[in-house]
C-alpha cells in the first residue's frame, strides 16, 4: 500500500484530485468508483474546478457509486443520487446516463443488488475506486462482520453509522435503517483503490488499518489483499499512527 501524508483536508482533496484527473488523462473512458459523505466533498470541488481550469473532460467517463440508502428516491435531498448530482455531476460535463447508483426504491431489493453487481462487471470494474473510511472501519456500507466474498447487497446499518450520518438528516429516526452497498468483493475488483481519511475522528481507524492484519470485524483491512491501494491521510487522521 502506498501512504501519502498531507497536512490537512485541503491538501488531501487536491492530492486526490490530481490522481483522479491523471486517471482521466490516461484514459478518457475511465470508470470511476465514487463515495459520498463528507470526506470526498473537497475532492469533488477540486474536480469541478479542474473542468474549468485544467480542461478535464468527463464526456466519456462512467461512474459507479458505492451505495445508496434504501427507501430514498433520487429526488430525496438525503439520497446519495441527490448528493452526487448536486456535489459533482451537475457541475461537470458528464452524461447523467453514465452515472450509476443503486436504486434505493427498487423492489425486490435483492434483484436490484444483482442488477448492480452485473452492471459493475459489465461496465466496470472501476479503474479507480475512491473510498472514505468509517470510524468503525467500514467501507461503503460494509459494516464489521461483512464477509470478504460479499458482492452488492442490502445491509442493516449499525447504530454508530446512523448516528454519524444523522448530521445530514433532521433526526435519527429519519436516517434509513437499510442501505444497498457494493460488497467487499465488488470493491476489491477495482484496478486501483484510493482511500481518503481526514480529521481526528478517523485517527483510531487509520491507526488500526496501518497496523496491518486482515480481519472481518474491520472491513477496510481487506484492502491489504489488494495490490494497488493508496491511502491519503492528513495530519490529524495520522496522529495516532505516527
Ligand atoms: C459513503 C460511504 C461511507 C463513507 C464513510 C465515511 O458512500 O460509503 O463508507 O465513506 O462512512 O463517511 P464520511 O466521509 O462522511 O466521514
UniProtKB/TrEMBL annotation:
Catalyzed reactions: alpha-D-glucosamine 6-phosphate + H2O = beta-D-fructose 6-phosphate + NH4(+)
One Pfam family, short name: Glucosamine_iso
Single Gene Ontology MF annotation: identical protein binding
EC number(s) given by UniProt: 3.5.99.6
InterPro entries: Glc/Gal-6P_isomerase, Glucosamine6P_isomerase, NagB/RpiA_transferase-like
Gene Ontology biological-process annotations: carbohydrate metabolic process; glucosamine catabolic process; N-acetylglucosamine catabolic process; N-acetylneuraminate catabolic process
Record pathway: Amino-sugar metabolism; N-acetylneuraminate degradation; D-fructose 6-phosphate from N-acetylneuraminate: step 5/5
Presence of the UniProt keyword Hydrolase in the record: yes
Entries under CDD domains matching the protein: GlcN6P_deaminase
Residue stretches making up the Glucosamine/galactosamine-6-phosphate isomerase domain: 11-224
Active site (record annotation): 67 (proton acceptor), 136 (for ring-opening step), 138 (proton acceptor), 143 (for ring-opening step)
Swiss-Prot/TrEMBL keywords: Carbohydrate metabolism, Hydrolase
UniProt GO cellular component terms: cytoplasm
Entry's family note: Belongs to the glucosamine/galactosamine-6-phosphate isomerase family. NagB subfamily.
NCBIfam families: nagB
Purpose: Catalyzes the reversible isomerization-deamination of glucosamine 6-phosphate (GlcN6P) to form fructose 6-phosphate (Fru6P) and ammonium ion.
Protein name: Glucosamine-6-phosphate deaminase
Organism annotation: Planococcus citreus
